[in-house]
Amino acid sequence: MIKRLFLALLLSLSPLLLTQSAYAEEMAVASQGEPVNINKADVQTLAGSLVGVGLARAEEIVRYREAYGPFYSVDDLLEVRGIGRSTLDKNRDRITLE
């Protein structure tokens, strides 16, 4: 009985543990490397350099930049579909505009 309860508890916590582990890994990746210029970087560079930004979001960044011109502030990324405050905050130190 106790083993079943323990197993049930462990299984219910596993998504939380995996999420925390993935977050820690993302933050470790974010702390490495050179900043990426969001006004010049291509889709692959953006996707490979920014935490939580895959190819689809990187394409949206490039699409937005081509439609509206360069980003004047890092906060301008919030206008891009799929980029929220959390993603921006994880990458703020990884982004340059020059």
Summed up:
This protein is mainly alpha-helical and 98 residues long. The chain is 58% helix and 4% strand. The protein has 2 domains: 1-32; 34-98, Photosystem II 12 kDa extrinsic protein (DNA polymerase, domain 1, Orthogonal Bundle), CATH 1.10.150.320.
Major sheet summary line? 2 strands, parallel
**CATH evolutionary superfamily of the largest domain:** Photosystem II 12 kDa extrinsic protein
Determine the structural class based on helices, strands and strand pairing: mainly alpha
**What's the CATH topology name of the largest domain?**
DNA polymerase, domain 1
Distance between the termini: 62 Å
CATH C-level class of the largest domain is Mainly Alpha
- The helix/strand order is HEHHHE
Question: So what's the overall shape?
Answer: elongated
Order of strands across the biggest sheet?
1-2
Number of helices: 4
CATH architecture of the largest domain: Orthogonal Bundle
In total, the number of domains comes to 2
Helix content: 55-70%
Residue fraction in strands: under 5%
Q: Which spans of ≥5 residues are poorly predicted at pLDDT below 50?
A: none
Q: Could you tell me the number of beta strands?
A: 2
